[in-house]
Amino acid sequence: MEENKTQGKYYYSIGEVADLFGVSTSMIRYWEKEFDVLRPRKNKKGNRLFTERDVRYVHVIYQLLKVKGYTLAGAKQALKERFSDYEERIILLETLDKTRSFLLDLDKALAEKQKGTPRG
């Protein structure tokens, strides 16, 4: 998942969520049908509105299926037995990504400041 893409928004479209994980919108809709935990809200037009928590669910599902190579049945069983463990790991990964991004931005700002400082 790309860093800081979900920071500060209340709802995300299915396209935004799909882009975050590099999957198709049809894949997200399929996961919604297969995994009971994934239930985004829908507006009057029927467009899906994903919350931060929904995005975290997608992240856990993505990690199990695409990164760890679980089967659909295996991922469902793992979520049923240990969802909170997976959710904690995802939150930790997101925190580490945000911290890394902050430190890289800080390093860049310090380097720019150092370039502009006259030496004497």
If you had to describe this structure to a student in words, what would you say it looks like?
The chain is mainly alpha-helical. Helices cover 66% and strands 3% of the residues. The termini are far apart.
**Helix share bin:** 55-70%
Named at the architecture level, the CATH assignment is Orthogonal Bundle
Q: Give the DSSP E fraction (strand runs of 2 or more residues).
A: under 5%
Give the helix/strand class: mainly alpha
Order of SSEs: HHEEHH
Output the CATH class name: Mainly Alpha
**The CATH topology, please?**
Multidrug-efflux Transporter Regulator, Chain: A, Domain 2
How many helical elements? Answer: 4
Number of strands: 2
First-to-last CA distance = 45 Å
Please tell me the overall pLDDT.
Answer: 87
The structural domain count equals 1
Broad shape: elongated
The stretches of 5 or more residues where confidence is low (pLDDT under 50) are none
Major beta-sheet overview = 2 strands, antiparallel
- Biggest sheet: strands side by side, in what order? 1-2
Concise summary:
The protein is mainly alpha-helical and 120 residues long.
Per-chain topology:
Elements lengths: L13 H8 L3 H10 L6 E2 L5 E2 L2 H16 L4 H45 L4
Antiparallel strand pairs: 1-2
Give a quick set of tags describing it:
Multidrug-efflux Transporter Regulator, Chain: A, Domain 2; elongated; 120 residues; mainly alpha; 4 helices
